[in-house]
Amino acid sequence: MILETPDKRQETPNLIGEGEIGQYKDIGKKAESREVINCDGQELIAEGKHLMQNSARSVQTRNQAQRDIRDTADSKTAKTNIENRPTVCNTTLAKAQQEDQYFKPIYEGLKADKRPTKEEMVISSPETRHYWIIWDTLFLINDVIIRKFSKMDGTGNYYQCLVSKQLRKNIIFQAHDCILSGHLGSKRTAPKLLQKYYWYNLKEEVNNYIMRCDICEANKFPQKKPKAPLGSLLTGAPLDCLATDILGPLPTTPRNNKYVLVVTDHFTKCGGDLSCS
């Protein structure tokens, strides 16, 4: 029998339970997934400052985002539609009308509330005389000449702004070449313009503009069928070919003739005439 003395008692190790083993395993996994932490005091202080800066930056970013949302909600923005595209202001229209030689007599008459006389319009251009004819439909709003137009069938009334020559090309461009216009043809572009604008021979100018549009010519079918090229008649001797034409009716002669038959030889270019009834 062996007796243990009090001085030589064996120190038994502390046993770890099964529940604690799982806890230590989790700690080991976390330690493996993280980098080794240096316990130097300066680096810990720098680490703390870095975390504080990140936190402050996050708070600042959130506050800025909230301010942007509030500013966007409080701002009064117009609805996006085709009417919000840039247009010519009233000041530019009024100045252009006053400087235009065709509008100037009409503008001065409307300003003085006195229609120009017929004698004053005799020496004016056809465009100015056209505006003089439709005088009863014209009036001034903020020094801009406006025309009131009513459809014959009573389906609509329009207030049309008279456009001077220097601004017409830009307005046709907005109605035809703009990305929201779609390069429509003259039959649809002209009525679209007439809802807001008016000038002398508007439809003719719109048609000429669209006919010279490179994009329309490249992507649309030709409006007119191509014609065969002109040729020439070849002759080798006099009287091979005679060109005839009838001139008249003219005042009747004592012999009751009122037409003239003109004959030209194609080779010699010699001509003659003969009266006929």
Write up this protein.
This protein has 277 residues and is α+β, with helices and mostly antiparallel strands. Among the domains are: 87-219, Endonuclease III, domain 1, CATH 1.10.340; 242-276, no CATH class. Helix content is 43%, strand content 14%. It contains ten helices and seven strands. The protein has helices at residues 18-33, 41-74, 90-99, 104-112, 118-121, 126-133, 165-176, 186-194, 202-211, 214-219; strands at 138-141, 144-150, 157-162, 197-198, 242-247, 259-265, 271-276. Strands 1-2-3-4 form a four-stranded mixed β-sheet. The protein has a three-stranded antiparallel β-sheet with strand order 5-6-7, with no helix packed on it. Strand 1 and strand 2 form a beta hairpin. The longest helix has 34 residues, at 41-74. Mean pLDDT is 75; it is low at 1-16, 27-41 and 77-86.
Secondary-structure blueprint of this entry?
Layout: H1 18-33, H2 41-74, H3 90-99, H4 104-112, H5 118-121, H6 126-133, E1 138-141, E2 144-150, E3 157-162, H7 165-176, H8 186-194, E4 197-198, H9 202-211, H10 214-219, E5 242-247, E6 259-265, E7 271-276
Parallel strand pairs: 3-4
Antiparallel strand pairs: 1-2, 2-3, 5-6, 6-7
Helix pairs in contact: 8-9
Give a quick rundown of the structure.
The chain is α+β, with helices and mostly antiparallel strands.
Summarize the helix and strand pattern as letters.
HHHHHHEEEHHEHHEEE
Q: Provide the spatial order of strands within the biggest beta sheet.
A: 1-2-3-4
The amount of beta strand, in percent, is 5-15%
Please, how many helices? 10
Which CATH class of the domain at 87-219 applies here?
Answer: Mainly Alpha
Mean pLDDT: 75
Helix content: 40-55%
Give the overall form. flat
Largest sheet: 4 strands, mixed
Class derived from helix and strand content: alpha+beta
Low-pLDDT runs: 1-16, 27-41, 77-86
Proper CATH architecture of the domain at 87-219? Orthogonal Bundle
DSSP summary, beta strand count: 7
Gyration radius, rounded = 47 Å
Would you give the CATH topology of the domain at 87-219? Answer: Endonuclease III, domain 1
